[in-house]
Amino acid sequence: MLKLVSSRLFDRLVLQSVRCSCEKSIDMAKDNLTAVLHGIEDMRLEQRPIPQIADDEVLIAMDSVGICGSDVHYLAHGRIGDFILTKPMVIGHESSGVVTKLGKKVTNVKVGDRVAIEPGVPCRYCDHCKQGKYNLCPGMVFCATPPYDGNLTRFYKHPADFCFKLPDHVSMEEGALLEPLSVGVHACRRAEVTLGSKVIILGAGPIGLVTLLAAQAMGASEILITDLLQQRLDVAKELGATHTLLLKKDQSAEETAKLVRETMCGEPDKAIDCCGAESSARLAIFATRSGGVVVIVGMGAPEVKLPIINALAREVDIRGVFRYCNDYASALALVSSGKVNVKRLVTHHFDIKDTDKAFETARKGLGGAIKVMIHVQPRDANNPRKF
């Protein structure tokens, strides 16, 4: 009992120390080192002014920023679909930090609060926003999506109502991972995953793995996940996948669908494609039982060839997923309650000064990289316990 009380007292003292130091952090800051993408294969670390906040915004001392596949894609290609890099852009959007300054109208957080940052801020006024589908807002301002800056920087401003206070026992790294987890939660909601669902997930990369975790938490009874790399499937199995299936590049979607049915206890009624490749979308349709749902999460080529008549004749619904909406609070609740453990996904840690090495590790999958985390402040500086 004494040990438990002492542990809790220690945690409170650490967090109190963090909060007291935050009020002085802006004055003490000597730099606002920022990772800026200037063009294809042209990432630079440079100084930028500390931003001035509006009445409804907070200034955040950034702590942890995860590298997303989209960040790597912008570095390698300078564009994703119609989002084209035309001017220097601050990279990064999977993030957490500590509030250092409040706008006059902010009431939901206070200085010293550790927060996860939902990176997409809608207009709040259009029909999509009013109907609760703000991810479809045409006026969306999304971190590190041209022309808007991201938050791999020491200080970043953000609307307070899109900041989520982290409970004391949730780490900054877990806070940053709420962003990809929200994608998984949204994908499962779009697929209507519920108690007893049989789910196939195409792709065991970071998004496939968080979708696996979300599907488990939402009651799926059987989950099969596919990939071309056995190493990724091993991680999926470790995280609780019922079945894994190593794909072969020369195997047709129809042949693979047959293997899926033989591996699972019947046909899956939900398919979630986290790859974006034409072959995975085709497999999702062929493998899904009649009357089921196929959800496309991964973004691939602008146009692909799909077996639409097959889906039509069997009433297989095909649904898209674009980011997330109203999912951050749910993702936080899953992590906070312990129902979802995302810690296993973080495989590498880098200081912001080593951003180039971090991106090299992420894009090449060095050392079995799943999620590479960049630390803007010293690692564990804002965690009550070591991550």
From TrEMBL:
Residues 39-374 form the Enoyl reductase (ER) domain. One of its GO terms (molecular function) is L-iditol 2-dehydrogenase (NAD+) activity. The keyword NAD applies. InterPro entries: ADH-like_C, ADH-like_N, ADH_Zn_CS, ER, GroES-like_sf, NAD(P)-bd_dom_sf, SDH-like. PROSITE patterns: ADH_ZINC. Its cofactor is Zn(2+). The keyword Ion transport does not apply. GO terms for biological process: fructose biosynthetic process; sorbitol catabolic process. It holds the Pfam family ADH_N. Keywords: Metal-binding, NAD, Oxidoreductase, Zinc. Belongs to the zinc-containing alcohol dehydrogenase family. PANTHER family: SORBITOL DEHYDROGENASE. This is Sorbitol dehydrogenase. The gene is Dana\GF17192.
